[in-house]
Write a structure and sequence with these properties.
299 residues; mainly alpha; Receptor-associated Protein; 83% helix
């Protein structure tokens, strides 16, 4: 690979990595402002390793979860290590790069990009298990934040009707569809309480299994109500309204950030095709005219 092209690729990768880090930090600061992450430090189950706990928070549990994740990473890395050199040495890829290199101006960079595609694909395949676990964790957080306001409102309504917390929770669990992360964790909490566990400890374990800031705040409020003897309805309904308001604010923040996110795909995917479609015939005629004049002068 030519040294200028290599330097350009390295700079692009550095800029992309820096942009990703800055965007993740900006999302973390926004989440801290919205959800006030000064939640109490609940139990974190130190007997679990980091990978096992990360898988548990993503909903992947079991005694062999870490082993299966490690085998998946090893399999993907092996396939990437074997497949990338094979794809890089394929005649079709080399012929495509050679054809692209004959294009004016952008031919050489496009050819080098095509030659690097197998290695990019290898990197993506090697990190695929971690990306899938992270995506599952994100979907789990979104599902919990979507279901929590409704669950809190139902609990508050049943508490106003005279039911206790455990009886209200049973009604809510029976009315909600199974397979939702929050409902599944509430079922585990109910089993722990029925097994003789303390309500405060079971609530702390519930927050530790989910590790979602709104759930942590809700659990802290429930523990305070349990210790102070306060009414559940007076605590849960304002929490539900506050969660809905924060979700609306977050949706508005995402809508305001949408134009900035559209700049990169617009510049990369739309404008080049538009320029080729509109200016391509003119450049073609200009090149033909210059070629005709040059030949006439040479004769």
């Amino acid at each position: 690979m030519n040294q200028p092209i290599l330097i350009l690729v390295i700079l692009v990768l550095i800029v992309a990595l820096g942009t990703t880090i800055l965007s993740s930090q900006r999302r973390a600061r926004a989440r801290a402002r919205l959800w006030d992450e000064a939640a109490p430090a609940f139990e974190h189950r130190p007997e679990l390793g980091r990978i096992a706990r990360w898988l548990m928070l993503a909903g992947i549990r079991g005694p062999t979860a870490s082993l299966r994740f490690g085998l998946a990473c090893l399999l993907c890395a092996s396939i990437a290590a074997v497949g990338a050199p094979f794809m890089a040495a394929s005649p079709q890829l080399t012929a495509t790069a050679y054809d692209l290199s004959s294009l004016p101006v952008m031919g050489a960079p496009l050819a080098q990009l095509v030659l690097m595609l197998p290695w990019f694909a290898a990197l993506l395949l090697g990190g695929m298990p971690a990306l899938l676990v992270r995506a599952r964790r994100d979907r789990r957080i979104v599902a919990v934040e979507e279901d929590l306001p409704l669950v809190l409102e139902l609990l508050a309504t049943l508490a106003e009707g005279g039911l206790g917390f455990d009886a209200s929770l049973d009604r809510v669990i029976e009315s909600q569809p199974s397979g939702r992360p929050l409902v599944d964790e509430l079922q585990i909490y109910r089993l722990e309480v029925r097994g003789g566990g303390s309500r405060v400890e079971c609530l702390q374990r519930l927050a530790s299994r989910l590790e979602v800031t709104p759930v942590n705040n809700t659990v802290a409020a429930l523990i305070q109500a349990e210790e102070m003897g306060s009414g559940l309805a007076d605590i849960l309904r304002p929490l539900a309204e506050d969660l809905r308001q924060r979700r609306r604010e977050r949706a508005l923040a995402k809508a305001e950030a949408l134009p900035e996110k559209l700049v990169f795909p617009l510049v990369i995917g739309f404008l080049p095709a538009l320029l080729v479609w509109t200016l391509g015939p003119s450049f073609f005629q200009l090149v033909n005219t210059i070629d005709t004049i040059t030949r006439g002068t040479g004769q």
